Amino acid sequence: MTTVASRMTPHAEAPPVARRLGLSARLILLTTLFMMIAEVLIYVPSLANFRAAWIRNRVMGAQMIALALSAAPPGERPEELEEKLLAAVKGAQAIGVRGQGTQWLLATGAEVPPVPERHIDLRQPPWYGRIRGALRTLLMPLPRTTRIVAPGPPGAPGMDWVEILLDERPLREAMLAFTRQFLAVSLAVSGITSALLYLALHLLVVRPVRRLAANVTDFARNPEDASRIIRTSGRTDEIGAAEEALARMETALANELRQKRRLADLGLAVSKINHELRNMLTTAQLLSDRLGDVDDPAVQKVAPRLVGTLARAVDYCGATLAYGRASERPPQRRMVPVKSVLADQLDLTRLGGGHPIAVLDETPGDLMVDADPDQLGRVLLNLIRNAVEALARAKTPEARIAVRGVRSGGVVRLWVADNGPGVPDRVKDRLFSAFQASERSGGTGLGLPIAEELVRLHGGSIVLEDAPAGACFCITIPDRPAR
Questions:
Q1: 336: left (phi over 0), alpha (psi -120 to 50) or beta
Q2: Which residues sit opposite 95 in a β-bridge?
Q3: Can you tell me the distance from the alpha carbon of 460 to that of 375, in angstroms, rounded to the nearest whole number?
Q4: What is the rounded distance in angstroms from the CA atom of residue 121 to the CA atom of residue 135?
Q5: More exposed terminus of the chain, fewer Cβ within 10 Å: N or C?
Q6: Distance, CA of 298 to CA of 102 (rounded, Å)
Q7: 383: number of Cβ within 10 Å
Q8: Core vs surface per residue 29-53: b (16+ CB within 10 A) or e
């Protein structure tokens, strides 16, 4: 015990593994990231529209000034009025008008207008040009003068377009102020939206998922405890479906583990009983050997059969113990006639309790199978005995069992079919499960699992095939690969 405890202590005291970001932390990070991406996608077009509106306001002011000044003769326009009108268009350095092949300057703050370094044409502005221009105004070095060309004022057919020379620094200042306001509003909206979204997802997704994970962890500590099975919340969404599926799985697993434990206890008891029974049968086998010395002809006729039956009983006990140990001996394979293996099983009709049952050997006389004759005999014994008992219980009229066989290349197929009631649907899924497929009172349910294991040791398979009446089992045994 000391050694076991010392081995288990390091595992029990192992330091906990550092946890990474939990689902809630990842959720809030992803929510914040997605909100920021959304805000950026909204901010860039909004900034472009703000810049376009700012420029459009200046253009409208220039158009109004152009209309006002063009109504008066050039010599009668006071310079103070021109300067005041020009100052009303913030950032404007000069305003000009073109039309009917002529060009004239309406207002200027200097004697000679500066040479523009950047040109903006608003007559046919593409949408992507607005975004590009907004980013250029906000991020690139500003020119000293920018020339803006816009359509002429409405109601003035002599003015084709209006030109404005302006400084973009007021525009940048306005865009920066817009950016600060947008950032403040975006942070507030993002914070509120992220908090609400996080709260909703936490209540609807994260907390139920945590409940599922906690239940799985708790159930794993003692799967046989029915009180640890999750209680469904009654939700109709995917979380509710997961809870119901988990509840079904835990219920089935708990029942299966309890049954396995009971079967393990039963198997231990059967192994002990089987061990003692084998000793008794061995003693009976030794005593039956003395019957060979009796001169009675009837005894001489029965004695070999009795000895063979006891030998098979001893071997069967040993096979049952081997099944309990989950280990069958490897098959001692050789080419044997199927008829010789089947001949020892044809007298099983006596198990029918007097009910007439015919066992028909329809295998070809030259059919050879590469198999262990003893193990193949046990397989046929289990199938024929099950068929005889089913026919006898159902009292099937004209009851018969047919054994057919055929070789196809390197594969031999044997069919054991009867015209009885067939296999109930409720046991088909567990037909080859130990202790679970027996339908008769007192049956152990080991026959078919043992037969399936023996056939599998030969590299073959045994399956229940569909039949119009009764049950039909197909045994497939391939030849050993050539060395």
A1: beta
A2: 107, 164
A3: 13
A4: 17
A5: C
A6: 144
A7: 25
A8: eebbeebeeebeeeeeebbbebbbe
Any residues with CB less than 8 A from the CB of 252 and at least 6 apart, and which? none
| Single-letter residue type at 473 | F
Structure tokens belonging to residue 145: 């003068």
Q: Which pLDDT score, from 0 to 100, does residue 226 have?
A: 74
Average pLDDT over residues 203-226: 84
Within 89-168, where are the H helices? 127-139
> pLDDT tens-digit profile of 345-375?
766 555 555 677 888 889 998 999 999 998 9
Q: Are 92 and 105 spatial neighbours (Cβ–Cβ below 8 Å)?
A: no
> What percent of the chain is predicted at pLDDT more than 90?
11
Residue at token pair 């000069």: 94
Dihedrals φ, ψ of 477, to 5°?
-130, 110
Q: Which long-range contacts (CB under 8 A, 24 or more apart) does 477-480 make?
A: 477/369, 477/370, 477/371, 477/376, 477/411, 477/412, 477/413, 477/414, 478/370, 478/410, 478/411, 478/412, 479/370, 479/410, 479/411, 479/412, 480/333, 480/370
Q: Are 449 and 433 in contact (CB under 8 A)?
A: yes
> Which two structure tokens, joined as six digits, stand for 469?
């009446």
- 225: CB partners within 8 A, 6+ apart: 219, 254
Output the six-digit token pair for 346: 């044809």
Instruction: Return all residues near 359 (Cβ < 8 A) that are at least 6 apart.
Output: 345, 346, 348, 349, 384, 388, 400, 401, 403
Contact 240, 233 (CB under 8 A): yes
Residue of 57, 144, 145, 153 lying closest to 98 (CA atoms): 153
The pTM score is: 0.42
Specify the amino acid at residue 370.
D
The residues with which 108 forms a beta bridge, in sequence order, are 94
pLDDT score of 22: 66
The DSSP bridge pattern shows strands 399-408 and 411-418 to be: antiparallel
**Cα distances (angstroms) measured from residue 24 to each of 20, 31, 195, 201, 212:** 11, 10, 12, 9, 15
Strands of the sheet with 92-99, listed across from one edge: 102-108, 92-99, 161-166, 146-151, 118-121
pLDDT of 285 = 59
For 48-113, strand residue ranges (E) read 92-99, 102-108
72: left (phi over 0), alpha (psi -120 to 50) or beta: beta
Cα torsion at 175, 177, 183, 189 (round to 10°)? -110
